[in-house]
Amino acid sequence: MSHLPILGYRRLRAGRCSLPGQLYLITWTTWQRRPHFLDPELARATARTISSAELWFPSRCLCWVLMPDHWHGLIELGEGANLSTVIQRIKGVTARHVNQYRSSNKPLWAKGFHDHALRQDEAIEQTSHYIIANPVRAGLVQHPLDYPYWDAYFIHDGLRLD
User: Which residues form the Transposase IS200-like domain (predicted)?
Assistant: First the structure.
């Protein structure tokens, strides 16, 4: 039995730190990149769960999009929160809901996640636009507003989505 996958995952986590108030661009994928969320009912149910502010507390999810085989989000880490623990909670709760919906016990999410701590000079609106425009880049819709499985905490009239 090889220990390379475990060591590789540990190496990914080695430099990861959790800083309160820090903004993180997060991505995680479905298990085996299966497009579970092409099923509209499953996508709607998962989107409702992800939208719950209580689920994220004390952190905040400022912006997110649920794609057929992955999730992107912009998270502001709360005081005393650990990034890995927050992600583990979100993935666990959504997986339980999905498995109840589909009467299954199969894995929903792949292990781990990718994170990028935003620097102070990286614009929140630019990062949010990147997240929200993901369905357009993937060819799923012509305009971000046409895609139903996303949300942004601070969308305002001045944010351009084209």
Answer: 19-134
